[in-house]
Amino acid sequence: MEMRDWNILLVDDEVEFISTLAERLELRGIPNRVVYDGESALKAVAENEPQVMVLDVMMPGLKGLDVLQRIKVEHPAVQVILLTGQGKTRDGIDGMRLGAFAYLMKPLDLEELIRTLAEAMQARSGEQS
Predict the structure, then answer these.
(1) 3-state helix, strand, coil in the chain (%, to 5)
(2) Domain coverage including residue 78
């Protein structure tokens, strides 16, 4: 599947960070949608299920791990890549236990994210075939 056919949802309460990330992905031909909190993420997934969700762990209100748990129950095919702040490896490990595909540390390396997105897309298409 070509990158331009991907359906990616980005979830982070840091508006400037996630908007910049969305723009950088668009420039590389990777379409995406952005929401800024956990409730909006659940709504966005219900309306148009993404193949992959990039989800920040630390958000006000509904936390990333809570969103992950609900997504894995309601939309198990969605691959979730968690974003964790520096030194928060524990969050990433907990997330993997809850069914996350991967976790990446902030500050984010764009090339690493794109590689991980491609691996998540491959894992998802492998599950569906």
Answers:
(1) 50, 20, 30
(2) 3-124
Cβ pair 91, 65 in contact under 8 A: yes
Rounded distance between C-alpha atoms, residue 63 and residue 66, angstroms: 5
List the one residue out of 36, 94, 87 whose CA is nearest residue 69.
94
As for how many domains the chain has, the answer is 1
Model-level pTM greater than 0.90? yes
Instruction: Give me the pLDDT at residue 129, please.
Output: 45
Q: Could you give the 3-state DSSP secondary structure of residue 16? A: helix
Phi-psi region of 101 (alpha: psi -120 to 50; beta: other; left: phi over 0): alpha
CATH code of 56's domain: 3.40.50.2300
DSSP string, 69-90: HHHHHH-TT-EEEEEE-TT-HH
Could you tell me if residue 108 is inside a domain?
A: yes
Assigned domain for 129 exists: no
Q: Are 34 and 10 in contact (CB under 8 A)?
A: yes
10 Å CB burial of residue 107 (0-12, 13-18, 19+) is: exposed
**What tens digit of pLDDT does each residue of 76-95 get?**
999 999 998 877 788 899 99
